[in-house]
Amino acid sequence: MRMPWLANWGRVLGNPSHFLTLSCSVLLFFLPLFSEKTYNAVDIVLSFCIAAVMITFGTRLGTSLASMLLMSYKHPTDPNAVRNVIKGLESDPGVSVIEEVRVWQVHYGLCMANLKLKYRPASGYGDEVLRIRQRVASLVRSHLGSVYGEGKGPRWDVSVQMSVEKD
């Protein structure tokens, strides 16, 4: 689970579970310093806060695991990221029809983008195919790629199935 506001705190504090455990431990360490009335009030408030944070982190973790099981992908910051990739491909003069686009997160470190499209042959078969494949890969990596800074996002595996458009 990645949280951008925790990512800069290092490896241990960047993990939400570690952050929750360590912060609760530090707060519980200072609990005996309070008087008995204050102790009871702070204990109750702390218990509810810890429970709320655990439910929040658990919901977020469950949602990300469920999306992996359902073979789906949701960009954390831009809900239109996949649409932007499709629009970028539609504007390419070599691409005539985009038949199918499937984007999903396989696990935390790997995402896949599978595209099926038809293209208009230009001067040379190999040149046009290679150019379109490189364009698809660069669009996917630029719009969907590294979300959390340079080299911190998931790795993208892009596969493109192409067929020639017949007149």
Number of helices: 6
CATH C-level label of the largest domain? Alpha Beta
Largest sheet data: 3 strands, mixed
Shape: rod-shaped
Proper CATH architecture of the largest domain: 2-Layer Sandwich
User: Based on DSSP secondary structure assignment, what is the total number of beta strands?
Assistant: 3
Structural class: alpha+beta
Residue ranges: pLDDT <50 for 5 or more in a row?
none
Give the domain tally.
Answer: 2
Corresponding CATH superfamily of the largest domain: Cation efflux protein, cytoplasmic domain
CATH topology name of the largest domain, in short, is Alpha-Beta Plaits
**Rg calc:** 23 Å
Give the fraction of residues assigned to helices. Answer: 40-55%
The topology string of helices and strands comes to HHHHHEEHE
For the largest beta sheet, what order do the strands appear in spatially?
1-2-3
Structure description:
- The chain has two domains: 4-69; 81-164, Alpha-Beta Plaits (2-Layer Sandwich), CATH 3.30.70.1350.
- The protein starts with a helix and ends with a strand.
- It is of the alpha+beta class and 167 residues long.
- α3 (16-30) packs antiparallel against α4 (36-69) and α5 runs antiparallel to α6.
- 52% of the residues lie in helices and 20% in strands.
- A three-stranded mixed sheet has the order 1-2-3.
- It has helices at 4-7, 10-13, 16-30, 36-69, 81-90, 125-144, and strands spanning 95-107, 110-119, 155-164.
